[in-house]
Amino acid sequence: MAAASLSFNYQTTFSWSKVSYAVVTQTSATSQIPVPLSASLQTKSNSMNLQTNKKKTMLKITLEVLTLLAIGWVSGAEIGSWFGIQPIIAKLPYDQQLNLEQSMLKSFGRVMPVIMPLSGVLVIMLAIFSRNDPRVVMWLRIIAAICIAITIVTTLTINVPINNLTAKWQIADNFEKWSQMRTRWHLFQGLRGGLFLVSFILLTIASTIQRHP
Fold first, then answer.
1. pTM (2 decimals)?
2. 144 CB neighbour count, 10 Å cutoff
3. Where are the domains of the chain?
4. Mind listing the pLDDT tens digit for each residue in 21-37?
């Protein structure tokens, strides 16, 4: 009787041991299945995020370069005209002044109506893209955008109307009114060129700070 009881206990214990081993083995195997899959998904997600960030960085660098080129070109053209060309034209006889101003309107009139608004759009986009940059970089670009906005407003309200009058001006028209009109245009051209130059300097400083904090 004791032997039969011992045999029963041994068999029962052995059976439960096999069941426990099977359960543990199955649980361990099941818990290990998702681990490689999860790691693969995480690696793929990290790779996609890296590619997305790389594209954003390249887009921002391209935008930054285009903005600097556009604003730098307009700044150079405006300051050069204000400082080096217009004072010389103002000393010429009336008929030569008129001929030169109308000729310059035809040449610059093809470029400025495109590049000036474009520079404004570019600098505004750059300021928006700078939200995650250091605060000093972001604010420098915002101030630069404000400078360009002011130049566009003064150009549309003052310089463009004077340009339209200049294009239609006749040599028989009053020279005194011509001089007053050109003096006013020259004053606001200096303001425009100065603000473009300030904007270009601010953007250059912002780019330097961003790369060498």
1. 0.75
2. 27
3. 56-211
4. 444 444 444 444 454 66
